[in-house]
Amino acid sequence: MYSVKEVYYTIQGEGYHTGRPAVFLRFTGCNLWNGRKKDKSKAICNFCDTDFLGTDGKNGGKYYLEKLISVIKKEWNCTYTSEKKFIVLTGGEPLLQVDDLLVKKLKKENFFIAVETNGTIKTNLKFDWVTVSPKENAEWNLRKGDELKVIYPQHKFNLKKIKNLEFKYFFLQPKGEEKNRTNILKTINYCKSHKPWFPSFQIHKSLGIS
Predict the structure, then answer these.
(1) According to the model, what pLDDT value does residue 81 have?
(2) Which of the following is catalytic: 14, 24, 117, 187?
(3) What's this model's pTM, rounded to 2 decimal places?
(4) Which of 144, 52, 62 is nearest to 43 (CA)?
(5) Tens digits of per-residue pLDDT, 165-178?
(6) Which of 26, 38, 118, 128 could serve as a FRET partner for 169 with CA atoms 20 to 30 Å apart?
(7) Catalytic option among 28, 30, 112, 147
(8) Is 194 an active-site residue?
């Protein structure tokens, strides 16, 4: 069974596919933080802005494959695009649960499958789009994909060096914290003078949508 926090229809709010209609399938659980606020300051990743604890979100629950596919198909309601149906597998850390059966079934249903991972887990699953967002205090094992998204600043990363990794696109995304405005300016200024880094902003938050 898959433990799911939520399944919902929205737009992709960040990175290369910003603005694209999507179903988000958010899995419960992560290997860098247990999701409990009281433990966040001591977590390997202590700046996460996502609630992935439990199964109490929209369409949350524990699902067998066929039922989960049924819920996903019901959520997709975009009829005006000629592109494939778009699904984002996220978390938490989706690669703790995503398997070949789910990927093959989604492809059979004509979904373009994107995954957003922290890069700690290597995978041979045949996704259509792989976004890796590594965390500076975690082991980084998945070092290739379509999109590298570094939350900025994370001072242990050598951005000049990692831009040579096997990714098509390189994004810096301002870290959301008390210094958020400062981080936005730092991100923009760094990207201005350091190709191929490009700024990524969470427009869904600015628009007030999930």
Answers:
(1) 67
(2) 24
(3) 0.95
(4) 52
(5) 999 999 999 998 77
(6) 26
(7) 30
(8) no
